[in-house]
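Folded chain entry
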Amino acid sequence: MARMIYFLPVKHKKMIRYYGLYAHGIKDKLAEIDRRTWARAIEHSFLKNPEICPRCSTAMRKETVFSFFADKEIRKLLETHEIEEGYFLPRGSAGEPP
């Protein structure tokens, strides 16, 4: 019984129940660390920030598209966008890149 009572906290004392990988909100923290590490690695290798548009220097939208038919999606995207230095850039109204 004494060994069990040892783990009971004093009344009104706050204790940490879970820590490390079991802590509250750890998935969000790990995702943020992973995103920062990825961006730093790309920036270190290519001397360009992958989260900033090279043309207008604004933050790019973070979207991920998963598709079993990726080649069809890329063909659709090429109808309205132009590839320049590895980036899909939207074409202007005349069909030319802006």
Strands lie at 81-84, 87-90.
